[in-house]
Amino acid sequence: MWSTAFRATDLADAAGAVARRADVSRAFLDENLDAKAAVATAMTEAGERRSQLLTDYDSECEAPWPVRALNASDALKAAHADILAQRTRIGELPGEIGDLQVEWIEEAIQRITSENTTLKQRVRRLTAANRTLDEHFKATRSNLRFLDRRVADLQCRRTRECASEVRTNVLSEMTGCSLGSSGIVAR
User: Tell me, what DSSP letter sits at residue 164?
Assistant: First the structure.
C-alpha cells in the first residue's frame, strides 16, 4: 500500500513537472486522457529503467573494486544516456500536449461556429417576427384612428341633431308653432 501511495505521489509530482515544463495547467493534464496516459507511460518507463539500474548495481557490488569501477563508469554513461533520453522525452511531451490543445481548440472553434450560426438564424427569425408584429401594430393603429374619427363624426351628428331638436322644441314652445319640412307651421 505504501508503494502505491508513493507511486501516486511520484506520478502527481511528475505530472506537475511536465505541466510546468509544457506551460499548461495541471487541470489540462488531468482532464486530457491522452496527456495523462503519456505522462503515466513515461513514469512507468522511468521506473523500469530505475529498477534495472538498481539490479545492475546490486550485482556489481559483489564484484571486486576494479570491476566495480568499470561498472560504475558504465553505469555513469548509462545514467547520462538515461538522463538524455528523459530530457528528450520531456522535450517531446510539450509538443504532444500542444498538439492535443490544438485539437481541443479546433473542436471548440467548430462548436462555437455552430452555435454562432444557430444564433444568427434565431436572430433572423426573431427579426422577421418583430417586423410582422410591427406591421400588425401599424395596421391596428390606423384602424383605431379611423374608428376614432368615425366616432367623433357620429358624435358631431348626434350633437347637431340633438341641438336641432332642442331648438325646434324651444321654438315651438315659445311660439306655439312647429317646424315642419315645408317651414314653420302654426298649431
Answer: H
Per-residue b or e along 17-26, where b marks 16 or more CB atoms closer than 10 Å to that residue's CB: ebbeebebee
CB 40 within 8 A of CB 10: no
Number of domains the chain contains: 2
- Enumerate residue ranges in the chain where pLDDT < 70: 1-14, 57-65, 67-68, 102, 176-187
**Cβ pair 68, 60 in contact under 8 A:** yes
Together in a domain, 21 and 110:
yes
Determine the pLDDT at residue 177.
57
pLDDT in tens, 114-146: 999 999 999 999 999 999 999 999 999 999 999
Q: What is the spatial distance between Cα 46 and Cα 14, in angstroms, rounded to a whole number?
A: 11
Phi, psi values for residue 69, rounded to 5°: -65, -45
Query: For residues 43 and 14, is the Cβ–Cβ distance under 8 A?
Result: yes
> Is residue 186 in some structural domain?
no
Q: How many other C-beta atoms are found inside a 10 Å radius of the C-beta of residue 94?
A: 16
Range of the domain at 161: 135-179
Tell me the residue type at 111.
R
How much is the pTM?
Answer: 0.34
